[in-house]
Each structure stands twice: as C-alpha cells, then as structure tokens.
Design goal:
By secondary structure, the chain is an alpha+beta fold. Helices cover 24% and strands 30% of the residues. A 5-stranded antiparallel beta sheet has the order 1-2-3-6-7, with helices on both faces. Strands 4-5 form a two-stranded antiparallel ribbon.
C-alpha cells in the first residue's frame, strides 16, 4: 500500500490513548497494510497506528519472520520478567535496557473483526507489550529506570531529529472519542 511518515517523540499523538476500532472496513484494512509496509521499510519489530498519526487501537509486528497485526488488544502478562535492549521508531537510533514480561497472551481482533489470540514470548512478547503501550500513550522510555531514562533523554535532546516539524494528523471517519483526530 504505502509507507507513511513515522511520528517522532514530542508529537502529542504519541501521548494520547488511542480509541477502540469499531468499523472493520476498507479504511482499516488500508491502515493495517500501510502500518505493515511502513514497519518493514523502517525496518522495525512493530508499529502502532498512533506512530503514523492515527489514533486507533491497531498495531503490526514483525518478529523472526512472522508478520501480524492486532486490533483492540487486551494483554495477559506473565509474572516472569525479561530485561533487554529496546528501541522505537519514534525515537530513532536510541536503545535502552527495558524490563518487560517474559510472555504474553494478547486477545483482540484481526482487520476483519474476527477474534484473534496471540501467544508470544521473549522478543514477540516485548514487541506486543511495546506496541500496546503506544496505544495507551506510553513510550518505552517511561518504563526505564531513572538513570537509564536520564541518559536516553539526554540523547533525545541532542538528536538531530528532536524538535523537527511533524506532519499534521489526518481526520479519520472512525469514532475518535472527542480526541480531535
């Protein structure tokens, strides 16, 4: 379909909770295709709709050759934890050690509205949690230990892209819950 520009840290849409998808229509299928194309082009392990300026609860992932998507995710997290390097397409070229659940069971829907359950561990679990956080307006840097967060924020402030002009949010015909999207 199309590769869309990825919104960068500082764009307000990245801090808003995305709204549930209620219309499983051609526009949603285009969005999933665009998210997939954009993620693979970047390349990234995942991409959430707010990262391309759409405030809907949709994300894609690409882990170990498996490409998928999930709409309206609800997660069940394991008690076992993992530490690992994490990055984000909205914070280019920055990585940090981030703690996540070791495994996840994600319930949601596919782009046609059919129920889907995804079981993931390690990297897939990390990607699903990371992208679901985006849908809640949470960035991975919010989950870092204090000193690691300070280090990453200093790198953000020094980055060439920080403060760059951001593209405007396009209006969606989907219900936006008064978010003005």
């Amino acid at each position: 379909m199309a590769v869309r520009p990825v919104r960068l840290f500082g764009d307000p849409i990245l801090r808003r909770r995305a709204v549930e998808v209620t219309d499983f229509d051609a526009e949603l299928r285009r969005l999933v295709a665009d998210l997939t194309d954009t993620m693979l082009d970047a390349p990234g392990a995942g991409l959430a709709a707010p990262q391309v300026g759409v405030g809907l609860r949709v994300f894609t992932w690409s882990v170990h050759g498996e490409v998928g998507h999930l709409v309206n995710p609800v997660l069940e997290l394991s008690d076992e934890q993992q530490e690992g390097l994490e990055g984000c397409l909205s914070l280019p070229e920055l990585t940090a050690e981030c703690r996540r659940a070791m495994s996840v069971v994600a319930h949601g829907q596919d782009m046609h509205g059919e129920p889907v359950t995804v079981h993931g561990s390690e990297l897939l679990a990390r990607a699903i949690q990371h992208e679901t956080d985006h849908l809640d307006g949470v960035l991975f840097i919010d989950r870092l230990e204090t000193e690691e967060r300070r280090r990453v924020m200093a790198e953000v402030r020094a980055a060439d892209w920080f403060g760059a002009e951001q593209p405007r949010v396009k209006v969606s015909p989907h219900v936006t819950g008064g978010l003005g999207l």
